[in-house]
Specification:
single chain; alpha+beta; 6-stranded mixed beta sheet; 3-stranded antiparallel beta sheet; elongated; disordered N terminus
Length: 310
Amino acid sequence: MAIISDFEEQDSKPPSSSTAAAAASKPFNAVLDPANPLGFLQAVFEFVGRESDLFKSDSLINDVNAVVRMVKDKLLTEERKRKVEAEASNSKAAGKKVKEDVPVVAATAAAKKEEVKEAKGKEVMKEAKEEDKNGSQGPAAPNNNNGLDLENYSWGQSLQEVNVNIPVPAGTKSRFIVCDISRNRLKVGLKGQPPIIDGELYRPVKVDDCFWSLEDQKSISVLLTKKDQMEWWKCCVKGEPEIDTQKAEPESSKLSDLDPETRSTVEKMMFDQRQKSMGLPTSDETQKQEILKKFMAEHPEMDFSKAKIS
């Protein structure tokens, strides 16, 4: 397996004790500029990084994301509360019948009820999407690359290859990437984090003709060369949502590049897929029907009323 990667040398000169002491004793003196809140956050993170071991945690990104979500949810709840109170005030000023003894708590409870209703609606939609992914509605239609766009990665294919694209945080270096490709399995992720992909491939691959690369330090591209280059994959990794391979479309512009035998097979597959989509017999079924008709013509004395083609 060939691996394309880049390596960068890092200076590992440890800071002197005097420098460390100065950094440790430096007070936090950043001022929030409303026009540049991210600059203030950067100063906060740098201060916390100097004063604690927070950045040594493997779950730092998840922890920070959780804090951000919590603050965002809190601000949204407060905003809804203000809107409800404003609407109640406007209704009263317009002369609508509003009971004077209804406390603000009632408005807050209404907002909370609406929030719970909205959350339940989102949960139902999420479950519906999960059911679609799990194939409750049947195989999904393939994307433009004859594959599928999933939550953590996307994949596409030709009859010869499978291309997998995995987004990673901007600025990711190749030395942080873990990519193991075997005949029947694929594992891709970042060091110190759970794998993004880790499972059994739909079909075997030619390991020596597979490789991965880091694209613009923001996505991992994995090329898998199929062992059987005359079959469409229903999924990249077993257990993931499957596509309807009858709707897969090979690039017609490349048919001329194939050898005659392969081209004939591909054209037959395309014909059969079109026939199935229209509810018509495939080429093999048509051939069997022709053979049966010929046999019936040669043996009129036989009863073929209950004959079936299998």
